[in-house]
Amino acid sequence: MNKMADFAKLLGKELDEEFIVKAEEDFKCKMTNRGLFVYSSVARCWVEQNNLLYDLISGKYKIKKTPWRAKKLEVYYVPDPAMGEMYRKTKNVICNEDNVSYIRGLMCKTPEQAIEIAKAMIKLAREMQGLDY
Description:
Elements (H helix, E strand, L loop, with lengths): L3 H7 L7 E5 L4 E6 L2 E6 L4 E4 L2 H8 L3 E3 L10 E5 L7 E5 L4 H8 L7 H18 L5
Antiparallel strand pairs: 1-2, 1-5, 2-3, 3-4, 6-7
């Protein structure tokens, strides 16, 4: 029985989700059903590095905190305080709007996350305008 999904979850990630490992030099990794892979910018491909898995689990190296990013064609939610639901549902087609949503921290995995951010946006706007309602 393959346990790679369990190891990915232990690291706070999902299978095939890319993440950055903080070391002497940061590098891009992903966990698959076959093991842990590191992206080689020289070879321009993913290289299996299962010995790194032990270093991550033992705490020798840390995973750099990055926002969640929807995979290609995956649904995500954008906080939108002007909408009645306070969010917009959209699909990641890897366009400029998707990249901007990600970079600004507005790409949410669930409607609840988007609503929470939208409420914080409204609160901040009211505070900045000196409103107390």
